[in-house]
User: Fold this.
Amino acid sequence: MSEAPIFSLAGKVALVSGAGQGAGAGISALLAKQGAALIINDVNAGRAEKQAQALRDAGGKAVAAVFDVTDLDAVRAGIAEGEKAIGGPVDILVNNAGNGGASGDLPMMPFAEMPPEVWRLPIDVNLYGAMNCTHTVLPGLIERGWGRIVTIASTAGTHGVNGGMAHYGAAKGGSIGFTRMVAMEVAANGITANSVALGLIKQGDIPILNQLAKGLPAGRRGTPDDVAPLCLYLASTEASWMTGQTIQLNGGAYTT
Assistant:
């Protein structure tokens, strides 16, 4: 009997949060291509169903799961419904939902001028969102003795950004620390947990970001196609000894 192809996810169920667009859509598409059944989460029902349908049209198995990752009760109910619809429990969790959350608003300004009420928005989605999804699926992963958790973080959480994003950097830094702590707790249970610290990713034609990207060694912003293969590796059986790490993916901007 031949062995399964490398990086095959056949028989696995993957949940990708915030997968209706951007990097999340790219990650979900590659995981599905490699055989995983996908639960496509997004707070926007139209985006979630559109991406799930795209994966089905490509021959994959996918269902939409519409919920706000900042609402723990909604996360629990949404994941339960998604697992029922897809026909099995989550094996792979990609905590991708981020930025400004449901509103899409991430006000940027110097911290000294930042009203405390705007701190909560990015912290809720980028930190509590990852915590809520992880807390919901982790007991099942432990019980079954296998699991993969990938948290999409940012260089704002590892190196900082001089651009009025203290709240965002704090949230992403918190998600990195959280993911490492979980990795240490569950490594003996056959579960890995890693973070990917993204640099400048292309989401729309934003002139100032395009200009900043010219200063990168790679000379361009990243794309979902750059992010997805790393997430595939981290989600695979082959990555069983890779855990508790924060991997920089930034076009050469930083090395550690």
The chain has one domain: 13-245. The CA atoms of residues 207 and 213 lie 10 Å apart. The first helix runs from residue 22 to 33. The mean pLDDT is 93.
